[in-house]
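Q: Could you fold this chain for me?
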Amino acid sequence: MQAQVQIVGVPDPEAGRVRLLEAREELVELANAQDPKLVEFGGGVRDISVRVLGSRAGTYVVAHLHVDVRDAMGANAVNTMAEAVATRAGEIAGGRTLLRILTNKVDLRLSRARAVFDAEALGGNDVVDDIVHAATLAEVDPYRAATHNKGIMNGFSAVVLATGNDTRAVEAGAHSHSISPQGLYTSMSRFEKDAAGNVVGTLELPMPVGLVGGATKTHPVARAAISLLGVSSAAELAEIIVAVGLAQNFGAVRALATEGIQRGHMSLHARNIATTVGATADEVATVVARLIADKAVRVDHAENVLAELRAGR
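A: Sure. Below is the predicted structure, expressed as structure tokens.
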């Protein structure tokens, strides 16, 4: 994880940057003193980097603490460290310290997933080509990328929430990582055709999740979810989450490239409507089948179908 310390009003910002780098050992020691337990477990500040950023309001010197948080998500640890070094960093740089807080752009904490989807199982070469075309549109078109990536987050957010981790932190990190060097919002995943004609899917994203601290350690449902997954490290949990996101994404792209996504959506919608109008467990399937066959997935029609079903008994 990284924490940022913003310093304003530095008269010589480039020299201020170098002064902070020269004081690296002092700042690392000061930050690590805030969390001796983390250091005991092999974590702590690993490096310091400094950036000079011009803006319409002035030039800022921004110091980054690069912190190995081990199996924690790490927000509290890095925020505490940033607070501890802020005053001294401002003195060294020669300016006034303002913000001192973590960044959710956690591009030093990446997790990856890769999968090969058999062409024959998918339905042949034409289906493979259409899946690749559908996924590639999301790489070049931000309108498609927004919905494509939302499908990935459907998978991510479910596991992150179930394990007591911070869904907003994960979402912020994933979306910020999806801005290309050219400034285009693009697809988080990539789908390609390999030499054997299969689809290869890959996903690489920041994944700031933990197993210790916060709700993950104390909430009984989160603890049950962690136990069910059988994970023993934050890195392992992160890899599972990314794998779920890739699987969720592939399922959606395959549906879009073949039967269309609406078929599955309308089936689920019909089931929800059947339940809403009072269909019992043994009536739902019949009502759903009729709604879909009539192409009238509406509450009023569901009420009529259910009344007819019960009247015919």
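A (continued): The chain has three domains: 2-103, 110-258, 263-311.
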